[in-house]
Design brief:
heterodimer, A: alpha+beta, Ferric Hydroxamate Uptake Protein, Chain A, domain 1, four-stranded mixed β-sheet, three-stranded antiparallel β-sheet, 5 helices, 22% helix, B: mainly alpha, 2 domains, two-stranded antiparallel ribbon, 2 strands, globular
């Protein structure tokens, strides 16, 4: 009985990895060299500016929704071999000390990480059709963020939608119909 | 019998509904603390000090478990304490978890008191006319748990006298428990048959039968209705004015300390402590009268 309890605790603890705040943000970003592969990443929440009335009241602050809607400007990051969109986003966000919460790829049925919130802007923070979506080279891939492997010179954009993607030019509904 | 118990069943029932409603539909820290301390105080006046202490010990454990669960699953909040599996664990999530735990434990304490104060006859009196079958089933089901407990102790004792007590090793203990449980199940089936027979013999289900009850409305009951209506009105105006909103994410908000809200908090505290105040006053009166003899 006690043996089982100990085993359970050991398994639970071994899967937990704890980092202090400084350690976490001490992310190494490779320097861009002439021959290195790069991708551009940007994070924007312009759509919220048009839907301020729907935004949760505690988030109506420039800290969370910048006046120009840009959380992370278009920046180039080095693409490491085998990097998915999630890996690049995770590095960029850590490097810039931007808050992010995600559901790990092991934790959902799609086998892909899911971005719950960036910069304290969560899914459903701005109406019940809101959340984060991503584009690669201007197109919505329509599948999981850690299933998409990036190529050299890809342009990744994270946009916040307040209307299930219709207000940022992409939606499963319009594509299907 | 406590003073609060001697109110009309409808008063007691409505009071509980209001307390549970207020507790469950606000997440304001002060309201939740009032509910918790009020519930503990009332449960203290209804039971012995020792029982209360052991209750508090158990619920302290539950409190720690519940409040630790929230930061494991919610990572919102600005004040990051550390990162676990690449997700932030924040102070805000801890605080929110603590107050949710307080809410749950407050509701449990109030329900414990309700179980003691709203006896079966009161439940039947209140709902016997409206939903006769359901109220009977509810009353019987609620009665079943303590009955089961009592019978389990009796069976256990008789097993012990037969020399079948559990030894120190675990498999033997489990075997003993299974044996007790086995006969408990057998007994409960038999008991339900007996209950059914007994009810039939007493004419359950015959038309034109009435139920006896001794509950009547007094002036104090009417006053309680007025008080509760006044409190509800106050609560809703306060809620409407935004006095009972507290922000947990992404940063903790400030507790509103303006005159209006302090008055509101005081009234909520008074409402939550009402039963225990009545109990204590009644006890003091009793002691005083006793000393005069």
């Amino acid at each position: 009985m006690i043996g089982f309890a100990v085993l359970f605790i050991v398994i639970a603890v071994s899967r937990i990895e704890i980092l202090s705040v400084d350690e976490y943000y001490l992310t190494h970003i490779d320097d861009i060299k002439k021959d290195s592969q790069v991708v551009t990443v940007s994070i924007r929440c312009d759509t919220i500016l048009n839907n301020m009335d729907k935004l949760a009241p505690e988030l109506r602050d420039e800290k969370y929704v910048p006046r120009d809607g840009i959380i992370l400007e278009e920046t180039q990051y080095v693409l490491r071999p085998g990097d998915t969109v999630f890996d690049v986003l995770n590095r960029a966000v850590r490097y810039n000390k931007i808050h992010m919460e995600y559901q790990g790829e092991r934790d959902n049925v799609y086998g892909s990480a899911y971005i719950r919130g960036i910069n304290h802007l969560y899914e459903y923070s701005c109406g019940h059709l809101s959340g984060w979506m991503y584009k690669v080279n201007g197109k919505y891939p329509g599948y999981g963020i850690s299933k998409y492997k990036l190529k050299d010179r890809d342009k990744v954009e994270f946009v916040y939608t307040c209307d299930l993607g219709r207000d940022v030019g992409g939606s499963f509904y319009s594509e299907r119909n | 019998m406590s003073r609060f118990e001697s109110f009309h069943p409808l008063v007691i029932f409505l009071y509980y509904v209001i307390v549970l409603f207020v507790t469950m539909f606000t997440n304001h820290p002060i309201v939740l603390l009032c509910a918790l301390t009020g519930g503990i105080a009332f449960s203290g006046t209804l039971s012995t000090g020792r029982q209360l202490l052991s209750d508090i010990g158990f619920y302290l454990l539950l409190f720690i478990l519940l409040s630790l669960a929230n930061p494991l699953f919610t990572h919102n909040g600005e004040t990051v304490l550390f990162f676990m599996n690449d997700n932030p664990v924040t102070k805000e999530a801890f605080v929110y978890g603590e107050f949710i735990a307080i809410m749950i434990i407050a509701v449990i304490f109030w329900s414990k008191c309700l179980n003691q104060v709203m006896t079966t006859d009161k439940v039947l009196f209140l709902f016997g006319r409206v939903v006769p079958k359901l109220s009977l089933i509810l009353a019987m089901a609620l009665r079943f748990i303590p009955l089961f407990k009592r019978q389990a102790i009796i069976i256990n004792n008789s097993q012990k006298t037969m020399g079948l007590y559990a030894a120190d090793n675990i498999p033997d203990k489990v075997k003993g428990t299974v044996r007790v449980f086995d006969s408990l199940i057998g007994w409960s089936i038999e008991n339900s048959l007996e209950t059914a027979d007994s009810m039939k013999a007493r004419g359950y289900g015959l038309p034109e039968r009435s139920a006896f009850s001794i509950f009547s409305m007094h002036r104090s009951d009417l006053m309680m209705f007025g008080l509760m209506a006044f409190f509800l009105l106050l609560f809703f105006t306060g809620k409407h004015a935004g006095l009972l909103i507290f922000q947990y994410y992404p940063t903790l908000g400030q507790i509103n300390c303006s005159g209006r809200s302090v008055v509101l908090y005081a009234l909520i505290a008074l409402f939550m402590f009402f039963p225990s105040i009545i109990e204590i006053m009644e006890k003091i009166k009793w002691k005083y009268l006793e000393s005069k003899i």
